Structure formats: structure tokens, C-alpha cells
Amino acid sequence: MGDFLLEDWSIVQARSDTSRINTKLLSSELEPMTDLVKDMSDGVKLIQLLEIMSGTPLGRYNPKPKMRVQKAENAKKALDFIRSKDVRMTNIGAEDIVDGNAKLVLGLIWTLILRFTMSSINEEGLQAREGLLLWCQRKTAGDPYEPYVLIRDFKRSWSDGLALCALIHRHRPDLLDWTSLDKNDAVGNTQIAFDVALNHLGIPQLLEVSDLCGDKVPDERSVITYVAEFFHAFSSLDKAEVTTRRVEKFATMLSGIQKQQQDYVAQTEHLKSQIESCIQAWSAKDMSDTLQRVERDMLALSAWKTDFKRPAARDRAKTIALFGNIQTRLSENRLKAWNPPQALAPQNLEDDWRKLLKAETTYMRKLDEHYRQLKQAMKEEYAAVATALNQRIQDLNSQIAHMSGSLEEQKVIAQRISGQVSEIKQDVAAASGLSNRCSEAKIDWGDLEPIEDLEYEAQLLEDNIAAKSRFIDNAALASLGHVYSTEEFLQIYDDLVRKHGAVTYKAFVEFLVTITEDSSSPEQLIEAFRSLANGDDVVTQQDLRKARLSPTATSFLSAAMPSLEREGADQASTGDIAYDYHAFLASTFARS
């Protein structure tokens, strides 16, 4: 660079800065530089660069200075402007620029780049170098760039060209095929990045391939300057991306809130409809007329609590919470609060829920009271039936105990009572069904007479009238001289039942006829005894033996009939005692 000697790092930086500055000069149709330090020495290019970078005119200056003092004035004007922008500069004066102090001039150019180019770089609060580094790291993170790209600094991290290719592919995948890159060709990858950046992105090639891929460590300032061009080239894309993302995020957020509002309205309307249906159903429902139906209604209410009330209570809590979440999201995003229709407001839903609980309690109490009344009515019905049956049983027992009159009259009364006993037995059986229903309803029996007692009393009554009937029948037979034991009489009774189907009075008469065919009137018996006595008025033991009576009958008659003494006869020696059968029969038969 002419008469100015530069170190190796300065050469790279000077070339990079020259290219960058020339790009800006050419964009303003100004003559480019060929030697950065030398062309800056008259202050003209420095002033032009400041006006382009700051967008602010510096005022009058000498565009074609000849003398040193004119050059110094231009340089001083530029430095004063830089200081007015609160840019800190150290140990540089107008003379350093005029004299071509390469180190100080390059330092000044770098300071200007930081102030007017790098200051606009901001990434998550980090600015300039740190912000640019973070931006590069974020843009090249993840697939498909890892593990090929790992940016740690602005030196060796860029020596294989892949970091530059990744930045291009991340923003403009249409310009570069990442998969086709040879990841081991550092020179080729770097040249591809330079060419695409220059030809398609308008980024001047501020560096040479060797500046990045050579044996020496790349110059950090030069790399930062070049990479910053990518940041600015893609900033519009990033801004558009940020803008799109911001609008999309807002739309998504707002759409989500509206969806929540729609869900709240739908859920609230559904809950209110269900609540209203329940209240109306309970209000219009008539009480059932049987315990079984009331019990079914109670079971239905219990099932309602499980199947509807609990899920509805959960849905109600979720709906109220949803409304709160909606309001919170609106508040956090500084959006207007949402007011649903008054009928769907949370407070209105809470009021409806309280009405439902009140209606449930009212209906439940109504069911309980009606159930209690039905049980009481059933209890009273059974009590009336049991009392009436018990009284009828007692009345019939009393009639049996006080039965009087002739056997025939008592027989008629007994048959009438037997018919009534059959009716009582049927009524007790019917009362048993009522008793079972009372037991199923778990009615408190209290002082009620159990059905078992009534059944027992009815059976005793039946046994009582049966015994009385047998007694009457046996007494009738005894009057005819036929006495039977209980076992014999029961056998006769069973025979009559098999023959006639029931022991009616007619059957009993027929039975008497059969057993009285061998019986005789008192007159017939006197005639029979006279025949045994061969016409005599007395009958002897010899006469009885000749008649071939049974020993039992002979013994009975000998003891029962009064004996007589006969004249001229020794009864003791002959053993032939005479008996007065006339007196015996007269004392035995009732007088007619």
C-alpha cells in the first residue's frame, strides 16, 4: 500500500475495510479508494464515509485540499463529528490521519464499523460482537448443520466455509444445496459461500479464501466485518420472519382465546339446559301411588346423583375455571376483558346451580314424606285387617264355647261356624300377602299382631270347631248305644269324607241309618227279652246262656238288671237267678 508499511493482520483488515468502504462509496456514486490509509490522509474520503454511514451531512469542507493544513482541517472536522456521536477514540488526532498512521487509521475504521454498523445488531439483549456471535450460533443450531457447524468465535470457527454456507442455507435454501456440499472441502465451501453472497445477496467479498482457510488464524475484525454483512443482508428476512411470527403468534393466541370463549358458551348453555330440565321434571312429577314405584323413584334419584350431578359439578367447576383462564389470558396480553351474555355469566350459572340443589332437596324431601305416608297407610291397613280378623276369631271361639241346644241344632251351628272358619283362613292368607309387603317395606311393626300369630289363632279355631264337630257326632252315636274312641271316630270320619267329599249333615244322617238298622225300640226289646224268657216276665241266667250272648253282654246284663226271688226254687243251688227285664228297660229308656 504505497509508502505505508502494514503488518500481516493489518493487510487483511485493510483489504477488507477497503472493499467494504468502496461498496458504500460506489453506492453513492463516489470514487472508490485504492489505498485505504493513503486515500484517507486528506480527510475527504473519511468525511464522505461518515456522511454515508451516519446519513448526516457534515457541512462545508475542502473537497480538494492541497496543503497539509487543509487536509488537517478536513480530518479534524471528521474527528469532531465522530466525537459528537459519543464515540470514544483514543490517541488519534488529525495529524495521525494526515501522516498515514496505519494502525490508528484502521482502528478508527473499526470504531466506525462498531458504531454505525454493528450497533444495530441486537440478539436477546446482546449487542455488537456478542450479539452477532449469538445470532450466528442460533441460526446454525440443530439439524441439518450439527455436528458440522459449531461456532465459538470469529476465528477458526469459520475456516472450513461451512458456517457461511449454513447461514446462507438457513435463510435462502434455494441458493445453496447443503446436502451436496463436501464437508471436507474447506476451500471449495468457502468459495461457494463467497460467490453466492456476492452474486445473489449483494454482499461484497471483503476477504479472500486464503484469509479464512490459510494456515494463519483468521483476523477476527475482518471476519466480524464480513459476517456482519450477512446479518444485515438477512435482517430484512429475519424482520419479516419476526413480523410473521409475531402476527401468527397473536392470531394463534387470539384464536385460542376465542375457541375458549366458544367452549365456555357451549358448556354453560349445555349445563343450564340440563339444570332446567331436571328442575322442570321434578316440579311436574306426580308422586307414585305404590311403595315399589316410590322406591324406584328414590333409586332413580340416587342414580341421578352419580350419573349426572357429580359429572355436572365437575363440568361446572371446569367451566368457571375456564372463564377465569380466559380473563387472565386477556389481561396478560393487555386485551379487553370479555363479557359473555348476561344469562351465561358465571354468576348466573352459579345461581342456577343453587336452584338445582334446592330443587333436589325439595324433591328428595317430598319423596321421603310420601314414602313415609305410604308406609303408614300400609301399616294402618294391615292393623285394621289384623284387628278385624282377630275379633272374628275371638267371636267364633266364643260361639263354640257357648254352643247349646239339641245335637241336631248344635250340628247345624258347627257347620255354619266351619264355613266361617274357612272364610277366615282365606282372609288370613290374603293378610299374609299384605304382611309380606309390610316386611319388604321394612315397616316398624310396633304393637301390631304378627301374621304368624293370626295364622296360629286361625289354625286353633279350625282345630277347635273340628273337635267340637267330632264331639257332637260322637255324642249322637253314643245316644244310640254306639260309643267310639277318638281313633275309631276319626276313622269313621275319614270314611265319610272319602264317600261324600265332606262331612255334611246329610252324610251324618245316612251314617246313623246304617248303624241303627240293628237297633230296636223299647217295645221291641221287651218282646226280645220275653222271647229269651220263653214268655216269662223274668229272664234267668240260663236263658241268657241259651241265647248265646257274648260273655261280656251276659256279664253286663246280669249286673245291670235287678234280680228277683222265685217261690219254691233254690236259685243259689241251681245257679239260675231270675232278672226283672221289665224294670231294667223301664229305667233305661226315657219316657215318651
Automatic annotation (TrEMBL):
This is Calponin-homology (CH) domain-containing protein. SMART domains: CH (SM00033), efhand_Ca_insen (SM01184). It comes from Naganishia liquefaciens. Residues 364-399 form a coiled coil. Transmembrane segments: none annotated. SUPFAM superfamilies: Calponin-homology domain, CH-domain (SSF47576), EF-hand (SSF47473), Spectrin repeat (SSF46966). GO terms for molecular function: actin binding. Keywords: Actin-binding, Calcium, Coiled coil, Repeat. The lineage of its organism: Eukaryota, Fungi, Dikarya, Basidiomycota, Agaricomycotina. InterPro entries: Actinin_actin-bd_CS (IPR001589), CH_dom (IPR001715), CH_dom_sf (IPR036872), EF-hand-dom_pair (IPR011992), EF-hand_Ca_insen (IPR014837). Belongs to the alpha-actinin family. Residues 11-117, 126-235 form the Calponin-homology (CH) domain. Pfam families: CH, EFhand_Ca_insen.
